[in-house]
Design goal:
The chain has about 425 residues and is α+β, with helices and mostly antiparallel strands. Among the domains are: about 150 residues, no CATH class; about 100 residues, Leucine-rich Repeat Variant (Alpha Horseshoe). Helices cover about 40% and strands about 10% of the residues. It contains 20 helices and 12 strands. It has a 4-stranded antiparallel β-sheet with strand order 2-3-8-5, sandwiched between helices. The longest helix has 29 residues.
Length: about 425
Amino acid sequence: MRRIGSERDPAVTSRDKIALAEIRPLAEEVGLPEIAATDASPFDDLATPLAAYAARGRTGFEWDNASERMDPRFWLPEAKSIVTAALPYLTEEGARQMRHHPRSDLRGQTSCYVYGEDYHRVLSERLTELAKRLEKLVGREIRHRVAVDTSPLVDRRVAERSGLGWIGKNGMLFSPRYGSYVFLGALLLDIEIEDAKHLPPDVGKFCGDCDLCMRACPTQAFVAPGELKATACLSYVTQMKGTIPRPYRKPLGRRVWGCDVCQQVCPHNRHRAPARDPSFSPDAEAAYPDLVRLLKMSNRQFLRAYGRSAMAWRGVRTLQRNALVALGNLRRPEAVPVVARFLASDRPELRASAAWALGEIGGEDALRELQAALGSEQDPDVRQEMEEAIANVSASICRRGVRRDEEGSGHRRGEHADWGDVAGG
């Protein structure tokens, strides 16, 4: 819990209530263009959704205790109200960068929310400053807490109940002005807000029959409108610990952090207003990292290059694991030398990812590197990855040899096709 120790005007009479209309200009001054408010009563309507979410499998990033997630007063016992904020982050330049991938290079791809500065810091600082200004307005010290992504609260439901926006079938909160490209934060206060709202949950209220987001998901992670199997979401997969499960490697494509598909396909995001916040001006290198450069970085070099971004918190090794998978999906032979170096990494997830990538890239060089590494590998899971990669590369080399023999013998393509060719594989 945070207390504020700013100077107050002795002529200001202490107050226990405030109107949202009085808060809005202060929020604008600190860089919060969209705010709303709700009371601090428990979110009893979350009991069933949270139980269902837990049954589908938690990611490990959430607060474990559901009852604590439902009651704002666990986070701040004195809380009477909650100011919610939606901070838009996708600028015009960011939208252009998102549409124009430099596909000719060995570059990865990140979610547009990490193009600019780390939103945790930006939004937390602005909400804290808003609290200071509110204290001056009401003429007393305010007990408060700031919640930006790391509190027990279910941010999207808090925002929805306050009237800040509505939740789409992709589970994202949509601002009427900025679409779903907004960061959410909350400021719990020990002061009553007179016109605070208390709206019921209504997922997909403006989606109608549209389910583009659910159908476009690369891993089909949506189990129902607004309901996600979180461990199948590629945004989680790029942040998870350990080796990426096989079913999610190819769907990752070039991604090294996050996924925007369910936002990009949404019709409601086509006519949103752009963000104009300089904190979120896009960094081209953060948007499309050089994969080879990323694999050569130390953690210190990584933080120097990407430390301002929201993806920096996981550290260089997680991004390098993702980069290895991305290079495997790109299947570019020139990447073999830098990928092969990770077969000797001290991290099993990096050795496993490098083995899989080499198995996808293929070729004689990849095969030699895999065979050499297999002899000294002790981890059974990594050995299995290497063995499967060797089998994959060997089969690929064999198929190429057969095709060359057929072409040399004058056979037309398809006369001796294998079942994969016949099936269109």
